[in-house]
Fold this protein.
Amino acid sequence: MPKNKKMHFFFVSMMTCSVLSLWGCQSSSKPSKAQYSTAERPLQVIRSQDGIQNVRLKIIEINGQKAKFFQQEPYLELRASHKLLSGHTGCNPVIGKYTLNTQLLKIDFDARTGHQRCDGALPQEAELIQILNEIQAYKMLGNRIQFLNARGQVLLMTQK
């Protein structure tokens, strides 16, 4: 095939592909406005009806002592979708899982924490992890939640 014929064949092939591509685009349905939207939407958090799950619980007392702020405010969050515990001791993150019976007001934690060091935080952190693993029940008092051991003693006080 002569060079001109090859170029002509190549040119005709490319034009045919281009025309078919444009024709295919023209025949497709118009996208909705939602497909053009680039605005971010916040993730919808579904709050649990029980008042204890999917809520950030600020830790205000640990074993009767006011919780201390180190690098950040200590808190817990019980994520209902997978029964995961997350939070912070004030120095390190808290992770774990939990079981909950809202009818009997019973709860059981399996909690662990990280290993970063903060001046003076170790006693509060060690006590928090220990009592989380001793908690067996809870009481709702308005916007506060008391977490109790098997004898009914308040080990942890949180606030929504």
Observations:
- The chain is about 25% helix and 30% strand.
- The beta strands are 56-62, 65-66, 75-79, 84-88, 93-101, 106-113, 137-141, 144-148, 154-159.
